[in-house]
Amino acid sequence: xxxxxxxxxxxxxxxxxxxxxxxxxxxxxxxxxxxxxxxxxxxxxxxxxxxxxxxxxxxxxxxxxxxxxxxxxxxxxxxxxxxxxxxxxxxxxxxxxxxxxxxxxxxxxxxxxxxxxxxxxxxxxxxxxxxxxxxxxxxxxxxxxxxxxxxxxxxxxxxxxxxxxxxxxxxxxxxxxxxxxxxxxxxxxxxxxxxxxxxxxxxxxxxxxxxxxxxxxxxxxxxxxxxxxxxxxxxxxxxxxxxxxxxxxxxxxxxxxxxxxxxxxxxxxxxxxxxxxxxxxxxxxxxxxxxxxxxxxxxxxxxxxxxxxxxxxxxxxxxxxxxxxxxxxxxxxxxxxxxxxxxxxxxxxxxxxxxxxxxxxxxxxxxxxxxxxxxxxxxxxxxxxxxxxxxxxxxxxxxxxxxxxxxxxxxxxxxxxxxxxxxxxxxxxxxxxxxxxxxxxxxxxxxxxxxxxxxxxxxxx
Length: 461
Known about the structure:
By secondary structure, the chain is of the alpha+beta class. The protein has helices at 19-36, 47-54, 85-93, 120-134, 149-157, 166-174, 178-201, 208-222, 282-301, 308-312, 432-442, 446-458; strands spanning 41-44, 69-73, 79-82, 103-105, 142-144, 162-164, 226-234, 255-264, 267-268, 271-277, 334-337, 344-348, 365-373, 380-389, 394-396, 406-408, 413-414, 417-418. A 6-stranded mixed sheet has the order 4-3-2-1-5-6, with helices on both faces. The model has no long low-confidence stretch (mean pLDDT 94).
């Protein structure tokens, strides 16, 4: 085990995450990518990209507002325009931004909440033009990651040639630094703990949303910065996968799978596990085994030099598990980079990877996830592991047990002993007891069958 996780505090007697090094190395990587590109500057509104470049953060409430932005000019330091008083806070507490010089107040349109006549889009564009002119970069293309259309139009009106900057950011974020890997492993450690609590308390009568609440509490108590989502999917909702939880109540014999997505110091998890409540049917056990086999086979291929096309080639075609094409089955047999956001490069999918393979390299961190529907037509298995690519293979950093299907809930006992953990649900179609009863009834004469039916109906409820 080469990778380490630590406690969640800073201490003077042990080096843990080195945040100064984290900031320096992230900025150096994007500066290098920018220098090698045709772009004169990079303008970012995506909060994850802003954080990568400037090491600033004002809370996850702002992540979908596109209100704050930063500019990284060629051969220069980044300038950050932030939400009102946040800029002043950064001047006081973020010395790497050189006070007022590179931490300034600035606001975009709040995704259209401010009327066009207010002129916020034009104000943003003018700020960028001034900085480019000062550095002789106005005639150079500017890479932009995501942008509101009024801001885009205002930039163009200022004579700024806008090009795609998101691919440059994704390339810089592709290979993780030592401290990024430690933070990603720590985030997974916190989800290990959430699954432990979930496994201990799951039972018939508990609702999916209660499971979500429990996971949130465990993660926030441990110091999570943001629980981005918890997919809690149970019973007949498992197939097809709806990707959203409800208030459905867990029942005996239910499958239940979960995806826990949260961030620690900005670094994310995407981490599925599947359980059954009380007992599993043979169909559920078989689905889990197949789901696990596809995942294990993919993990066994991971090492530097292998391509995403080679990995997805061992996964089944969409038609093999009930979908008309790969687009309809997208993200069920899947892989994706994980870092400051949950979906980064590289992407593993039969939809795109054969035509556009990506080479796997040391230092990548990604998740591989598989799905398989059970033969009963309503249940399914879903498993996911996050891993770090090492020089000669990979290391899995999601540790909660998933080698075999886990049974949660009370272990029931009958007068004859423990109730089996693998058993059919109470259905006339599948339960051997009902089948034996039908066989016994069929062995009787017609008159005996009538008499036996009358006797059964007369039994008090």
